[in-house]
Structures are given as structure tokens and as C-alpha cells.
Design the sequence.
């Protein structure tokens, strides 16, 4: 339609139709402004805003790779606690009480084992991440922890904070586009490939 006819057709529409067209126009404008903001953000791949490569050593690994490393570390912690329980290094009284019978004693042993596993996992993480920047499970899958330079405190403090927040679970499952969990953001670290 020529422009004058289009104006007449637009004016002939009820006001609620014109209002909805205006809202649609505003939505389109906000979509355009959002896309401009997205371009300013400069997100192209995980880790590019931190200066990391897209692939290869030093890049941000996928979630599955990190979960496998976490599962391997947890399994190692379970194994260490099980060996310590069976040898009698820890929990001798609870093991004897659970063997004698009773649900409460068995539940107490289960709780003790679970808490012991968490403590061993946390200690293993703090020591190995502080010394080597990786743990045994993460090293098997090729993942290490790298400082981003956001925090000026010592590496040991960052690893303690990161591990404590990781043990709380919730900070680890809330993450951004770079797949940095809240525990990594708080500690100023990021998981990278070897």
C-alpha cells in the first residue's frame, strides 16, 4: 500500500489494535536493544571474556568432564573412608555397635561414614588444589583449577573458600555462561583443561 493509504488504514483501526501494534513495536525495539547489549558483552564461547582459548589446553572444559572428575574424587574419598573403617583407624565404637545390631547404631554409622567422606573429600581438595592445582580425579579427566586474577588473596585461601562452597553443593550448581559456579566466582578461579 502507498504510505497515505497505510496511514488511513492504521487510523481506521480501533485504538486497542493500534495499542497492541505499538506494544509489539516496543517489544521489537527492546529486542534490538537487547541484541546490541549482547554484542557489547562480547560472549562468543566459554572463557573468552577471561582471555582463555576456545579449545585445547587452557580452555574451559565441559560440565560432564568436570562431573566425572568430581565423581572420581568422591569415589576415592569413599574408598579411603571404607579402608579406614575396615582397618579400624576410625569409627571403631560405631562399627562394633552396628555389628551388634540395632537400627540406631547402623544409622549412626551411616551418618559417620558420610560425614567422614565429606571431610576426606574436602581435605583432599584443599591439599591437592593448593599444591598442584588439580586433584586425582580431575587430573585423570584433564581438568585443573586456574586463578583468574580477580582476587588478591593467597592461593590457599582461595582453595579453602572454593572447597567449602563446593561442599555446600548449591553454589556449585548455580553457574554463569562461562560455566563458573558461584564457588569459582567467589574464589576467583576457573576450571581449565590440561
Sequence:
Amino acid at each position: 500500500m502507498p504510505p497515505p493509504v497505510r496511514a488511513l488504514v492504521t487510523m481506521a483501526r480501533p485504538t486497542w489494535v493500534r495499542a497492541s501494534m505499538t506494544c509489539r513495536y516496543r517489544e521489537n525495539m527492546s529486542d534490538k536493544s537487547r541484541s546490541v547489549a549482547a554484542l557489547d558483552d562480547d560472549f562468543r564461547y566459554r572463557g573468552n571474556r577471561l582471555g582463555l582459548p576456545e579449545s585445547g589446553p587452557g580452555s574451559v572444559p565441559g560440565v560432564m568432564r568436570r562431573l566425572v572428575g568430581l565423581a572420581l574424587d568422591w569415589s576415592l574419598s569413599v574408598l579411603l573412608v571404607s579402608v579406614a573403617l575396615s582397618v579400624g583407624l576410625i569409627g571403631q565404637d560405631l562399627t562394633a555397635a552396628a555389628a551388634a545390631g540395632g537400627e540406631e547404631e547402623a544409622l549412626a554409622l551411616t551418618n559417620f561414614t558420610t560425614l567422614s567422606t565429606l571431610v576426606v573429600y574436602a581435605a583432599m581438595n584443599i591439599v591437592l588444589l593448593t599444591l598442584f592445582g588439580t586433584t586425582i580425579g580431575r587430573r585423570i579427566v584433564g581438568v585443573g583449577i586456574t586463578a583468574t586474577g580477580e582476587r588478591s588473596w593467597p592461593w590457599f585461601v582461595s582453595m579453602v573458600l572454593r572447597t567449602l562452597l563446593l561442599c555446600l553443593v548449591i553454589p556449585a550448581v548455580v553457574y554463569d555462561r562461562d560455566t563458573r559456579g558461584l564457588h569459582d566466582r567467589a574464589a576467583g578461579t576457573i576450571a581449565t583443561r590440561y
